[in-house]
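User:
Note these tokens:
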Amino acid sequence: MSGPLAGKVALVTGASRGVGRGVALGLGEAGATVYVTGRSLDTAHPDLDFLGGTLSETAEAVTRLGGQGIPLRCDHRDDDQTRAAVEQIRRGHGQLDVLVNNVWGGYEGLHVWDERGQRWNAPFWQQPLSLWDEMFAAGVRAHYVTSALCAPLLIGARGLIVNISFFAGMRHRDQENLPYFLAKNADDQLARAMANHLRPHQVTAVSLYPGLVRTEAVLNAPPGTFDFSNSESPQFVGRAVAALAGDPQRSQYTGQVLVAAELAGRYGFNDVDGQQPRSLRSEFGG
């Protein structure tokens, strides 16, 4: 393996498809060994089989790009499964340089358009109460637990934690989906608090905001739903993580909310189509 991240080891959670898969590919093309976790090892999860995507496919793509992809089946709502995955990384490589907390829950209703999707923009008292549990259990709590279990390995490597978040955390003036708004805010605050704890150990922790990402789910939406004129491939988000991981001065950003498109301008990388998307920060009041 060669590349700026050759010899580095990364863990990307929720990497069967979407942004997680793209992050894994971005790290792989930089030469990293990338462990990818999720519930879909060799067959797509039955709830989202129409979107496709498995961990094995992601790992194979990482390897084709020049890294080494290693799939680990893990439901991050189960602490024992998360602990076992981290232990496998420790036994296999004895180090962890990059942790990307991407796994999330609560979006499923938007994809299958059940009650959760139909009431996504409804007042909070009209939304299913399960939305809160899904986003906090499979999202924020999973990020916290995975970070806590990985911390000793990250400290040993003076590594990097990236929480994949979104601009929903900034839309406090709009009628945002309440559990989503609060969960993304919590993820941002988690990165800030972890940064304070980890700063003496020279571990960097940040939140990273993609823009409109051309994931399988987004591309599956009815025609006209999205304007793709300023959109990003999932791998573009991965290139942002890889650039940050390869920056020896990245500690200057610890505790901050970063935007993938802004990092592209800072580090000089483009999307897979050669474009450099525009940051959406100003559109969301950030």
